[in-house]
Specification:
- By secondary structure, the protein is mainly alpha-helical.
- It folds into two domains: about 1-120, no CATH class; about 195-255, no CATH class.
- It has helices at about 5, 25-30, 40-45, 65-70, 80-100, 105-150, 160-170, 180-195, 210-215, 235-255; strands at about 200-205, 220-225.
- It has a two-stranded parallel ribbon.
- β1 (about 200-205), α9 and β2 (about 220-225) form a beta-alpha-beta unit.
- α2 (about 25-30) runs antiparallel to α3 (about 40-45), α5 packs antiparallel against α6 (about 105-150) and α6 packs across α10 (about 235-255).
- The radius of gyration is 24 Å and the shape is extended.
């Protein structure tokens, strides 16, 4: 097959059933067409978001204006999400047909390998989605505890045991207990949050402060053993190429049936 044709995705077009991370987007399309209501959408996908592992971060559905904003921008492009997936399915089918006709034995082996990897990737995504539901429950608990104690989002800077201590505290006592650490922890959090994102590839131990202060720092690769190769060198290019290939493969195989 030509290089252009080999770029065609061989994995089936993802759907909410295949690739769990696409559920929120496809769900918005269903919501817009009236196939589901808002309560159903929240029940299925309300726990997902760009910062879903951060308990203190509000979920998108907690924003009253998020739904209308997302629906307004859903069809800004030429096609809706479902149509785009259908087009990809057509491209995928054509690619598999060409590969099967030109290399039938290789195509059979490749399909078997992709199916095995895709099952693992789909299960991983399903487990992650259900785990994030637990994070949303934890967030609801901390928010409620903040209201009950009058300390609001300060409780997000405490451990679960410290939150329980605050909940059990006698209102008449003057000592602040675990809350005395909140100011320092909040300042540390804000400081760390202001640091630039670390490189995608890190070998060894990295000091974020020292790395951020380096005006010549690399943002793609960090090697604690010594100076990493120049960004244009063959070694650096090879490392990043392998990293992108593996990442792309994991994305594609998760869509296989």
């Amino acid at each position: 097959m030509s290089p252009t044709r080999t770029r065609s995705p061989l994995a089936p077009a993802p759907t909410a059933r295949h690739w769990t991370s696409l559920g929120p987007l496809l769900g918005l399309a269903q919501l817009d067409r009236g196939e589901i209501d808002w309560e159903t959408y929240v029940q299925r996908y309300g726990h997902r978001g760009p910062r879903e592992f951060e308990v203190s971060a509000p979920r998108p559905v907690e924003d009253p204006g998020w739904r209308d904003h997302q629906l307004a921008g859903l069809y800004c492009g030429e096609h809706d999400p479902r149509s785009l997936l259908e087009r990809r399915e057509q491209v995928r089918s054509a690619a598999w047909q060409r590969l099967t006709e030109q290399h039938p034995h290789r195509a059979a082996r490749l399909r078997t390998n992709l199916e095995r990897w895709s099952r693992a990737a789909r299960r991983r995504e399903q487990v992650r989605s259900e785990l994030i539901r637990v994070f949303w429950v934890l967030r609801a608990f901390v928010l409620r505890a903040g209201v009950a104690t009058g300390h609001g989002d300060d409780l997000f800077f405490l451990t679960i045991d410290e939150i329980l201590t605050v909940l059990r505290k006698d209102p008449g006592r003057q000592d602040t207990g675990p809350l005395a650490t909140v100011a320092t922890r909040r300042a540390t959090y804000e400081h760390d949050r202001a640091l630039p994102p670390l490189p995608a590839l890190i070998r060894g131990t990295v000091d974020p402060e020292r790395w951020a202060a380096d005006p010549h720092r690399r943002t793609d690769l960090y090697d604690a053993a010594g100076e990493p190769p120049p960004s244009g060198s063959f070694r650096a290019s090879s490392i990043m190429t392998v990293f992108r290939l593996v990442t792309t493969l994991l994305m594609f195989v998760g869509c296989m049936t």
